């Protein structure tokens, strides 16, 4: 096993473990921290695949901005004490079984695909670099890029209007 | 690494997100599980883009589209989070709870 495989398995274990922590933690603050660890592990996967731009953007946007927003809302509403009522134990068991069945069905569907032995390029290739992505973004995808800015503006106005006191 | 490891990892994260949405009643945690599912899809898109790049191998830009789609998914997710958290704050202000069972009064 070379270093890439070792890093892959370490990052995989971290990602799945902290994702389980998001679902199972009683305290919402611990869920947020688990989700931040998951995002860092996914960014590590991006770096392993030499997608450097997306790794940095993932850390800045998700772990930096979105998770801080979540933490801010949780602390603003003082929700760190667990108030969740465990009303229906059966509902949780059925939900877990349903999710597990989804996982099994999708993995079973993967068994017969043709691409499953194809290799993913690790550590080489320059399509993930800022230069290549930037050139493509501002030539082929320039109209979706501008529409995304309008989307951001409308989301900002919408959040202010919804969150405003009457 | 073969692509099936990445597919299985992304499926695992996605299923954990689905289980979280189905079992938790806290609106913020449900929202975070949706973010987890979006990130599983992002990881899979990047893995497929790198697989496509090495499989075709022809020109320098093969597979760039997948990574740009990940970028746009991140943009939409950021906009979605800002509006969604504003809705949760408004809901907390009205009913003093973020239990999503309170939302079933939207039926009436």
UniProtKB/TrEMBL annotation, chain B:
It is a multi-pass membrane protein. One of its GO terms (biological process) is ATP synthesis coupled electron transport. One of its GO terms (molecular function) is NADH dehydrogenase (quinone) (non-electrogenic) activity. It is an enzyme of class 7 (translocase). NDH-1 is composed of 14 different subunits. Subunits NuoA, H, J, K, L, M, N constitute the membrane sector of the complex. Belongs to the complex I subunit 4L family. It is found in: Cell membrane; Membrane. This is NADH-quinone oxidoreductase subunit K. The lineage of its organism: Bacteria, Pseudomonadati, Bacteroidota, Chitinophagia, Chitinophagales. Keywords: Cell membrane, Membrane, NAD, Quinone, Translocase, Transmembrane, Transmembrane helix, Transport. NDH-1 shuttles electrons from NADH, via FMN and iron-sulfur (Fe-S) centers, to quinones in the respiratory chain. The immediate electron acceptor for the enzyme in this species is believed to be a menaquinone. Couples the redox reaction to proton translocation (for every two electrons transferred, four hydrogen ions are translocated across the cytoplasmic membrane), and thus conserves the redox energy in a proton gradient. Its main location: membrane. GO terms for cellular component: NADH dehydrogenase complex; plasma membrane. InterPro entries: NADH_UbQ_OxRdtase_chain4L/K (IPR001133), NUOK/Mnh_C1-like (IPR039428). It catalyses: a quinone + NADH + 5 H(+)(in) = a quinol + NAD(+) + 4 H(+)(out). The chain crosses the membrane at residues 6-22, 29-48, 68-92. Its EC number is 7.1.1.-.
């Amino acid at each position: 096993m070379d270093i890439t495989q070792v890093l892959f398995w370490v990052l995989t274990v971290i990602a799945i473990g902290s994702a389980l922590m998001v679902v199972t933690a009683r305290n919402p603050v611990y869920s947020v921290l688990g989700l931040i660890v998951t995002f860092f592990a996914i960014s590590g996967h991006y770096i392993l695949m030499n997608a450097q731009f997306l790794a940095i953007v993932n850390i800045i946007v998700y772990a930096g901005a979105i998770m801080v927003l979540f933490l801010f809302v949780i602390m603003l509403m003082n929700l760190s004490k667990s108030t969740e009522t465990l009303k229906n134990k059966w509902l949780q068991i059925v939900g877990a079984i349903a999710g597990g069945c989804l996982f099994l069905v999708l993995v079973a569907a993967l068994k017969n695909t043709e691409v499953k032995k194809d290799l993913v390029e690790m550590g080489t290739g320059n399509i993930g670099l800022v230069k290549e992505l930037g050139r493509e973004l501002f030539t082929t995808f320039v109209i979706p890029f501008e529409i995304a800015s309008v989307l951001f503006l409308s989301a900002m106005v919408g959040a202010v209007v919804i969150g405003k006191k009457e | 690494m073969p692509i099936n490891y990445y597919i299985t990892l992304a499926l695992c994260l996605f299923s954990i997100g689905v289980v979280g949405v189905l079992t938790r009643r806290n609106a913020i945690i449900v929202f975070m599980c949706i973010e987890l599912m979006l990130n599983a899809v992002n990881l899979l898109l990047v893995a497929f883009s790198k697989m496509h790049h090495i499989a075709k191998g022809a020109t320098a830009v093969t597979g760039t589209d997948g990574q740009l789609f990940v970028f746009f998914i991140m943009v939409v997710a950021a906009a979605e989070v800002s509006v969604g958290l504003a809705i949760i704050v408004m809901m907390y202000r009205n009913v003093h709870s973020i239990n999503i069972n309170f939302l079933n009064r939207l039926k009436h």
